[in-house]
Amino acid sequence: MDAVPTNLALVTPNRLRIDWSDGAAREYTVRELRDRCPCATCREKRSHPQPPPLLPVLSPAETQPLVIRAMAPVGNYAYAIAFSDGHDTGIYTIEYLRELGSTMTNDETSMTNEIPMTNDQ
C-alpha cells in the first residue's frame, strides 16, 4: 500500500506539514504549493510564460500574504487547496504532494508548533 496523509497542519501561517502513514513528514511552503498548482490554467502559464508587465497592477488579494484558506479531500486520491489570492482549482494528488515539499528530520518534526487547519473562508 502506498503512503497516505495521516495529519495535515499549518506549522506557521505560510508552511504546511503533512505526516504520512509510513512515518515520513514533509513540509511545504504555501508559495511552493501555489506556484506548482497542477490545474490546467497554471500548467499552461508555466509552459508558456509571458514577459512580466512593466508596471503590474495588483488585486487587493495579491497585496496580502499568501495563505491557505481551505484544504479539503477529493475522494481518496487528492486534496483541493483554496488560496488567499482566490485560486482554488488545483487538485493535488497524494502522489504529487509526496513529490513536493521537503523531508523533515525527527528533530525538525518535534520542534514544530501546529496551527489547526480550518475551512473558514
Architecture overview:
This protein has 121 residues and is an alpha+beta fold. The chain is built from 4 helices and 7 strands, in the order βββααβββαβα. The protein has helices spanning 30-35, 40-47, 94-99, 106-110, and strands spanning 5-12, 15-20, 25-29, 68-74, 78-83, 91-93, 102-103. The strands form 2 sheets. A 4-stranded antiparallel beta sheet has the order 1-2-3-7.
Task: Give a brief description.
The protein has 121 residues and is an alpha+beta fold. The protein contains 4 helices and 7 strands; from the N terminus they run βββααβββαβα.
What topology emerges from the helices and strands here?
Layout: E1 5-12, E2 15-20, E3 25-29, H1 30-35, H2 40-47, E4 68-74, E5 78-83, E6 91-93, H3 94-99, E7 102-103, H4 106-110
Antiparallel strand pairs: 1-2, 2-3, 3-7, 4-5, 5-6
